[in-house]
Amino acid sequence: MFNLQGDQDEGLRRILSFSRARTIAVVAGTRGAGATSCIINLGAALAKQGGRVLLVDENFDARNVSHSLGLRPRFDLKHVIEGDCTLDEALMPAGALTVLAASKAARALARLDSASHNRALNCFAQLDDAADIVLLDARNDAIEPSAFASAAEEIIVVVSPGPSSITGG
Hints:
The chain has helices spanning 4-17, 35-48, 65-68, 77-81, 87-90, 103-108, 114-130, 147-151, 163-167; strands spanning 22-28, 53-57, 92-94, 97-101, 133-138, 154-158. It is of the alpha/beta class. It has one domain: Rossmann fold, CATH 3.40.50.300. A hairpin with a 2-residue loop joins strand 3 and strand 4 (97-101). It is globular and about 45 Å long. The protein starts with a helix and ends with a helix.
Protein backbone atom coordinates (compact mmCIF):
# COMPACT_ATOMS: atom_id res chain seq x y z
CA MET A 1 0.00 0.00 0.00
CA PHE A 2 1.25 3.49 -0.85
CA ASN A 3 2.03 5.52 2.30
CA LEU A 4 1.50 9.16 1.39
CA GLN A 5 2.26 10.40 4.93
CA GLY A 6 5.54 8.47 5.03
CA ASP A 7 6.60 9.81 1.64
CA GLN A 8 5.66 13.36 2.67
CA ASP A 9 7.60 13.03 5.93
CA GLU A 10 10.66 11.73 4.11
CA GLY A 11 10.49 14.62 1.64
CA LEU A 12 10.31 17.16 4.46
CA ARG A 13 13.18 15.47 6.32
CA ARG A 14 15.25 15.74 3.13
CA ILE A 15 14.32 19.41 2.76
CA LEU A 16 15.04 20.22 6.42
CA SER A 17 18.27 18.19 6.44
CA PHE A 18 19.90 20.99 4.47
CA SER A 19 19.04 23.40 7.26
CA ARG A 20 21.72 24.54 9.66
CA ALA A 21 19.03 25.77 12.05
CA ARG A 22 18.07 23.49 14.93
CA THR A 23 14.44 22.41 14.42
CA ILE A 24 12.28 21.53 17.41
CA ALA A 25 8.59 20.65 17.15
CA VAL A 26 6.26 21.27 20.08
CA VAL A 27 3.12 19.12 20.02
CA ALA A 28 0.25 19.06 22.52
CA GLY A 29 -0.99 15.76 23.93
CA THR A 30 -4.50 17.18 23.45
CA ARG A 31 -5.92 20.51 22.37
CA GLY A 32 -5.55 23.07 25.12
CA ALA A 33 -2.58 21.40 26.84
CA GLY A 34 -0.44 24.54 26.43
CA ALA A 35 1.90 23.83 23.50
CA THR A 36 1.42 27.33 22.06
CA SER A 37 2.29 28.95 25.40
CA CYS A 38 5.25 26.59 25.71
CA ILE A 39 6.63 27.49 22.28
CA ILE A 40 6.28 31.23 22.88
CA ASN A 41 7.99 31.03 26.28
CA LEU A 42 10.72 28.69 25.03
CA GLY A 43 11.29 30.98 22.05
CA ALA A 44 11.52 34.05 24.29
CA ALA A 45 14.01 32.31 26.60
CA LEU A 46 16.19 31.20 23.67
CA ALA A 47 16.05 34.68 22.12
CA LYS A 48 17.07 36.20 25.46
CA GLN A 49 20.17 33.99 25.35
CA GLY A 50 21.06 35.51 21.97
CA GLY A 51 19.51 32.99 19.59
CA ARG A 52 17.69 34.08 16.46
CA VAL A 53 14.38 32.25 16.91
CA LEU A 54 11.72 31.57 14.31
CA LEU A 55 8.31 30.29 15.43
CA VAL A 56 6.56 28.35 12.67
CA ASP A 57 2.84 28.22 13.44
CA GLU A 58 1.04 25.24 11.96
CA ASN A 59 -2.23 25.79 13.84
CA PHE A 60 -5.17 27.36 12.03
CA ASP A 61 -7.55 28.02 14.93
CA ALA A 62 -7.82 31.20 16.98
CA ARG A 63 -5.50 29.90 19.71
CA ASN A 64 -2.33 29.97 17.65
CA VAL A 65 1.03 31.70 18.02
CA SER A 66 0.12 34.64 15.78
CA HIS A 67 -3.08 35.39 17.68
CA SER A 68 -1.36 34.97 21.06
CA LEU A 69 1.27 37.53 20.06
CA GLY A 70 -1.29 39.95 18.61
CA LEU A 71 -0.20 39.38 15.00
CA ARG A 72 -2.41 39.20 11.94
CA PRO A 73 -0.68 37.15 9.25
CA ARG A 74 -1.06 38.57 5.79
CA PHE A 75 0.74 35.62 4.18
CA ASP A 76 1.27 31.95 4.98
CA LEU A 77 4.24 29.76 4.08
CA LYS A 78 1.97 28.33 1.38
CA HIS A 79 1.96 31.74 -0.34
CA VAL A 80 5.79 31.69 -0.36
CA ILE A 81 5.90 28.16 -1.77
CA GLU A 82 3.38 29.07 -4.48
CA GLY A 83 5.40 32.18 -5.40
CA ASP A 84 2.69 34.65 -4.33
CA CYS A 85 5.05 36.49 -1.96
CA THR A 86 8.62 36.42 -0.71
CA LEU A 87 9.70 34.80 2.53
CA ASP A 88 10.52 38.25 3.93
CA GLU A 89 6.94 39.35 3.26
CA ALA A 90 5.58 36.32 5.15
CA LEU A 91 7.88 36.66 8.19
CA MET A 92 6.38 38.67 11.04
CA PRO A 93 8.59 40.29 13.69
CA ALA A 94 7.33 39.89 17.27
CA GLY A 95 9.88 41.55 19.53
CA ALA A 96 12.96 39.31 19.63
CA LEU A 97 11.06 36.53 17.84
CA THR A 98 10.03 36.03 14.24
CA VAL A 99 6.79 34.24 13.35
CA LEU A 100 5.82 32.42 10.17
CA ALA A 101 2.22 31.27 9.68
CA ALA A 102 2.21 27.82 8.08
CA SER A 103 -1.21 26.25 8.63
CA LYS A 104 -2.14 26.38 4.94
CA ALA A 105 1.27 25.11 3.87
CA ALA A 106 1.08 22.15 6.24
CA ARG A 107 -2.07 20.94 4.53
CA ALA A 108 -0.72 21.55 1.01
CA LEU A 109 2.71 19.92 1.30
CA ALA A 110 1.54 16.53 0.05
CA ARG A 111 0.32 18.07 -3.20
CA LEU A 112 3.30 20.16 -4.31
CA ASP A 113 4.17 20.25 -8.00
CA SER A 114 7.84 20.31 -8.98
CA ALA A 115 8.03 24.11 -9.24
CA SER A 116 6.47 24.51 -5.78
CA HIS A 117 8.79 21.82 -4.41
CA ASN A 118 11.79 23.81 -5.69
CA ARG A 119 10.41 27.00 -4.14
CA ALA A 120 9.93 25.09 -0.85
CA LEU A 121 13.59 24.01 -0.95
CA ASN A 122 14.64 27.60 -1.60
CA CYS A 123 12.38 28.85 1.19
CA PHE A 124 13.82 26.43 3.75
CA ALA A 125 17.34 27.38 2.65
CA GLN A 126 16.44 31.05 3.26
CA LEU A 127 15.22 30.19 6.77
CA ASP A 128 18.83 29.44 7.68
CA ASP A 129 19.55 33.14 7.20
CA ALA A 130 16.57 34.08 9.37
CA ALA A 131 17.09 31.82 12.40
CA ASP A 132 19.44 29.68 14.44
CA ILE A 133 16.54 27.84 16.04
CA VAL A 134 13.20 26.98 14.42
CA LEU A 135 10.41 26.10 16.83
CA LEU A 136 7.42 24.43 15.18
CA ASP A 137 4.05 24.80 16.87
CA ALA A 138 2.75 21.59 15.34
CA ARG A 139 -0.93 20.84 15.21
CA ASN A 140 -2.22 17.72 16.88
CA ASP A 141 -4.68 16.25 14.45
CA ALA A 142 -5.42 12.56 14.91
CA ILE A 143 -6.68 12.39 11.33
CA GLU A 144 -3.55 13.80 9.70
CA PRO A 145 -0.34 13.93 11.78
CA SER A 146 1.90 16.94 11.43
CA ALA A 147 4.41 16.56 8.61
CA PHE A 148 6.52 19.35 10.12
CA ALA A 149 6.72 17.55 13.49
CA SER A 150 7.73 14.33 11.73
CA ALA A 151 10.57 16.15 9.99
CA ALA A 152 11.91 18.00 13.06
CA GLU A 153 15.16 17.01 14.75
CA GLU A 154 13.54 16.99 18.17
CA ILE A 155 9.97 16.82 19.45
CA ILE A 156 8.61 18.13 22.74
CA VAL A 157 5.21 16.78 23.78
CA VAL A 158 3.23 19.04 26.13
CA VAL A 159 0.65 17.29 28.29
CA SER A 160 -1.86 18.57 30.81
CA PRO A 161 -2.51 16.82 34.14
CA GLY A 162 -5.72 15.18 32.87
CA PRO A 163 -5.63 11.56 31.64
CA SER A 164 -7.03 12.53 28.22
CA SER A 165 -3.85 14.52 27.52
CA ILE A 166 -1.71 11.44 28.00
CA THR A 167 -3.94 8.93 26.25
CA GLY A 168 -5.63 11.25 23.72
CA GLY A 169 -4.60 11.88 20.15
